């Protein structure tokens, strides 16, 4: 049975701790009443309670003494509530603390915006030297936790909630591109995170001419390496991610690839404050297969697009970069402003 | 010369160095540096003879005092005053980890206490001796992070931690008592499971005796005088940040006490 990312994290860290006595597991009251690490290594497990900023700082103190703390809390709290502690400890001090945060994106669904995290990557991405991973599925989550434990570096790991995901691709390591389908054609879908990967898989089923690559490590250093490989395979890149535009992977890739078109399918500007599942909340944000296809410049009119445009605060998927330096007369794709396909009404 | 006499000499020399830093182009947080200086000297005297004891200056704006004291302990070989605040040197207005003897950078208030708690906890997890002495300001206690940390220290029974409060009564905009008074502080700290002591924050001998980290966490309320040692600044809230001329520095150093 495939484990959801959160459970894969707990299981993998417990296994690693058997081999590495430096590993310490810290929770902030959101790890659940039973935890395999606590059962196996109670002396190295501390639930520090609802005090995220102090928890990050205490983890920094432990790391400074040579221990390898893993601290877990929801993404909204680990990044924003404790933002300054993360800046000063993981950023400025480069303390090798691993911050593992479930409830990334809107995986909290009906929990609402207080528990959503559509801005966490922007926070961490702004801190030079902090590694960032958004693993998909059990195998990649385990690989990320192993890599984080092996290296003496600060790290942020964004997970989703409790749904298991059977990733149809091999884990992608740091700086690597995980190819999901196709490696040709002018347009490449790049997914970041489990739901975006599912959207892109569904999109390529309808449009087999599209390629789909998945990225797991999305800090600037990792993206710098991956960008070169992406650039070799497509002129037009559509990044699909469960995050706002600011601080998105799309925005970083746009900086890294000024001669490419980088388009963004992101969570947009709204605050989804209705009930619903993870999928329903994503749909409310416009993160849907039709939106992906529209941004990809599908030949067909994506089903549902008009509904999206009529009833939702649709986002224009305008390119984040102009193809600066592109030769004059370069073929301008008809979807240069694919947001028009969505008929934004607001 | 015994340790305490040596510490007193170090304190006097360090005071002169702080006055020199106030005469730098950047000036320095003079009042709080002079109030906390004897505490830092005592804390480092404790740490020098006990392996694994880390001193963390959580009120990082008193960096001038820390640099001056670390020069006296030999951690910083050069006199930091001529390079204080200047380009090309590590002596920033708040402690930088590039400075020898500084493990945790501080300045944004509250964090140093939590780093110290983490360090103290590491002793237990690693089975190694030592602990931490966190030096905080009385104004700093207004930060929520301080109380989050004290809560965790109590809940997780983190021993080996001494929190010493430099009670100089001042903060950036004036007096603590006028801005956000910290009432019943001994009782508050005791309620968090700390053994509380109140001492003269300029009595290095008593400080050195009471700061030693022990199994039960300790809070030491050290009554100090802002600007201590320079008659022109003693007890004046306006001494919080001072920039003086080299000539004024020579005058002040001539009457240090």
UniProtKB/TrEMBL annotation, chain A:
TM annotation in the entry: none
Sequence ranges assigned to domain Transketolase-like pyrimidine-binding in this UniProt record: 3-167
Name of protein: Transketolase family protein
Pfam families hit by this protein: Transket_pyr
Species per Swiss-Prot/TrEMBL record: Sphaerisporangium rhizosphaerae
Chain intervals with Low complexity compositional bias: 318-333
InterPro entries in alphabetical order: PDH/Transketolase, THDP-binding, Transketolase-like_Pyr-bd
CDD domains according to UniProt: TPP_PYR_DXS_TK_like (cd07033)
Location of region: Disordered: 302-346
Higher taxonomy: Bacteria, Bacillati, Actinomycetota, Actinomycetes, Streptosporangiales
Automatic annotation (TrEMBL), chain B:
Residue intervals passing through the bilayer: none
Protein name: 1-deoxy-D-xylulose-5-phosphate synthase N-terminal domain-containing protein
Matches recorded under InterPro entries: THDP-binding, Transketolase_N
Stated family: Belongs to the transketolase family.
Co-factor(s): thiamine diphosphate
Organism field: Sphaerisporangium rhizosphaerae
Record key words, sorted: Thiamine pyrophosphate
Domain Transketolase N-terminal: 56-244
PANTHER family: TRANSKETOLASE N-TERMINAL SECTION-RELATED
Domain of life: Bacteria
Keyword Acetylation listed: no
Gene3D superfamilies: 3.40.50.970
């Amino acid at each position: 049975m495939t484990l959801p990312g959160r459970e894969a994290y707990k299981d993998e860290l417990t296994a690693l701790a058997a081999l590495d006595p430096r590993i310490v597991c810290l929770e902030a009251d959101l790890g659940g009443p039973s935890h395999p690490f606590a059962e196996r290594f109670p002396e190295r497990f501390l639930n520090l309670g609802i005090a995220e900023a102090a928890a990050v700082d205490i983890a920094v103190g432990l790391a400074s003494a040579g221990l390898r703390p893993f601290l877990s809390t929801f993404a909204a709290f680990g990044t924003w509530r404790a933002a300054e502690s993360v800046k000063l400890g993981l950023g400025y001090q480069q303390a090798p603390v691993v911050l593992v945060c479930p409830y990334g994106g809107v995986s909290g669904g009906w929990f609402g915006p207080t528990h959503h995290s559509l801005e966490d990557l922007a926070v961490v991405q702004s801190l030079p030297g902090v590694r960032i991973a958004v693993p998909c599925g059990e195998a990649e989550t385990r690989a990320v936790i192993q890599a984080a434990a092996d290296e003496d570096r600060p790290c942020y790991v964004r997970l989703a909630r409790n749904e298991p995901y059977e990733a149809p691709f091999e884990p992608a390591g740091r700086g690597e591109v995980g190819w999901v389908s196709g490696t040709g054609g002018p347009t490449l879908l790049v997914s970041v995170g489990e739901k975006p990967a599912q959207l892109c898989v569904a999109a390529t089923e309808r449009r087999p001419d599209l390629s789909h690559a998945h990225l797991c490590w999305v800090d600037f250093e990792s993206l710098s390496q991956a960008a070169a490989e992406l650039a070799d395979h497509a002129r037009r890149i559509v990044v699909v991610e469960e995050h706002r535009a600011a601080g998105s992977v799309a925005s970083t890739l746009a900086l890294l690839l000024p001669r490419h078109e980088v388009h963004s399918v992101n969570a947009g500007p709204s605050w989804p404050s209705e009930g619903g599942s993870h999928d329903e909340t994503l749909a409310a944000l416009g993160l849907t297969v039709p939106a992906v296809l529209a941004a990809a410049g599908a030949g067909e009119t994506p089903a549902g697009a008009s509904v999206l445009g009529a009833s939702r605060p649709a986002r224009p998927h305008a390119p984040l970069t102009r193809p600066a330096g592109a030769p004059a007369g370069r073929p301008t794709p008809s979807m240069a402003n694919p947001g028009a396909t969505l008929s934004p009404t607001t | 010369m015994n340790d305490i006499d040596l510490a007193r000499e170090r304190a006097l020399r360090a005071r002169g160095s702080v006055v020199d830093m106030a005469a730098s182009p950047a000036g320095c947080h003079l009042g709080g540096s002079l109030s906390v200086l004897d505490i830092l000297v005592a804390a480092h005297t404790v740490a020098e003879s006990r392996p694994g004891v880390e001193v963390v200056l959580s009120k990082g704006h008193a960096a001038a005092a820390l640099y001056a004291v670390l020069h006296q302990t030999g951690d910083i070989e050069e006199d930091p005053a001529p390079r204080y605040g200047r380009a090309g040197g590590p002596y920033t207005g708040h402690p930088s980890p590039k400075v020898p003897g500084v493990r945790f950078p501080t300045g944004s208030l509250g964090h140093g206490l939590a780093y110290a708690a983490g360090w103290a906890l590491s002793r237990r997890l690693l089975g190694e001796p030592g602990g931490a002495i966190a030096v905080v300001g009385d104004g700093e206690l207004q930060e929520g992070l301080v109380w989050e940390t004290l809560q965790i220290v109590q809940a997780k029974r983190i021993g080996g931690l001494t929190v010493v409060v430099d009670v100089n009564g001042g903060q950036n905009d004036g007096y603590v008592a006028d801005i956000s008074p910290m009432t019943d502080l001994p009782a508050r700290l005791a309620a968090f499971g700390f053994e509380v002591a109140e001492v003269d924050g300029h009595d290095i001998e008593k400080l050195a005796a009471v700061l030693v980290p022990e199994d039960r966490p300790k809070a030491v309320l050290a009554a100090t005088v802002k600007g201590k040692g320079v008659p022109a600044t003693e007890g004046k809230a306006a001494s919080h940040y001072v920039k003086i001329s080299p000539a004024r520095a020579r005058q002040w150093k001539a009457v240090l006490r």
